[in-house]
C-alpha cells in the first residue's frame, strides 16, 4: 500500500477513533471519519491479544492486501482504521474479505462489491 494511503501519526488514529463512526463485527471493527484529502487513508490496529509479533504482522499483511483490493471500489475522502479482534485468528482469507466488505458497505464507503 502506498505511503500516501496510510495513516501514520498517533493523532490521526486517535482522531478517527474518537470522532469517527465505529462499525463492529466479532472478528473486525472499522472506524471511519471523513478527511480533507482527495483519497482514503488506512490504518491498522492489531493488539497483542491476537498473538506474538509474527501473528500480528501476518494479520496486518492480510488486512492490507484486502484493502488494496477494495480501495479502487471505495468512495474517496475517508480515514479508515481497521481493528483486528481475537475472532479474526484462523479466519480464511475469503471470510475476512467478506467481513471487511460488509463493514465498509455498512459504513457507506463501498456501494457494493461482488468480487474484489
Verbal overview:
By secondary structure, this protein is of the alpha+beta class. The protein has a single domain (3-106), classed as Ribosomal Protein S5, domain 2, CATH 3.30.230.10. The chain is built from three helices and four strands. It has a four-stranded mixed β-sheet with strand order 1-2-4-3, with helices on both faces. Strand 3, helix 2 (53-71) and strand 4 form a beta-alpha-beta unit. Helix 2 (53-71) packs across helix 3. The longest helix has 19 residues, at 53-71.
**Count of alpha and pi helical runs:** 3
From the N-terminal CA to the C-terminal CA, the straight-line distance is 16 Å
Total separate domains: 1
β-strand amount = 15-25%
Largest sheet: 4 strands, mixed
Name of the CATH architecture: 2-Layer Sandwich
Q: Write the element-wise H/E pattern from the N-terminal end onward.
A: HEEEHEH
Shape: globular
What percent of residues adopt helix (DSSP H or I)? Answer: 25-40%
Fold topology:
Layout: H1 10-19, E1 21-24, E2 28-34, E3 41-46, H2 53-71, E4 78-84, H3 93-106
Helix pairs in contact: 2-3
Which key terms come to mind for this protein?
single chain; 116 residues; alpha+beta; Ribosomal Protein S5, domain 2; 4-stranded mixed sheet; 4 strands; 37% helix; globular
Amino acid at each position: 500500500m502506498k505511503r500516501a494511503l496510510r495513516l501514520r501519526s498517533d493523532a490521526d488514529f486517535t482522531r478517527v477513533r474518537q470522532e469517527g463512526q465505529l462499525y463492529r463485527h466479532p472478528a473486525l471493527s472499522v472506524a471511519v471519519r471523513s478527511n480533507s484529502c482527495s483519497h482514503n487513508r488506512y490504518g491498522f490496529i492489531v493488539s497483542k491479544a491476537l498473538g506474538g509479533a509474527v501473528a500480528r504482522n501476518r494479520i496486518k499483511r492480510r488486512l492490507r492486501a484486502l484493502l488494496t483490493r477494495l480501495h479502487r471500489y471505495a468512495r474517496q475522502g475517508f480515514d479508515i482504521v481497521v481493528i483486528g479482534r481475537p475472532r479474526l485468528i484462523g479466519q480464511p482469507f475469503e471470510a475476512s474479505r467478506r467481513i471487511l466488505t460488509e463493514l465498509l458497505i455498512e459504513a457507506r464507503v463501498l456501494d457494493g462489491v461482488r468480487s474484489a
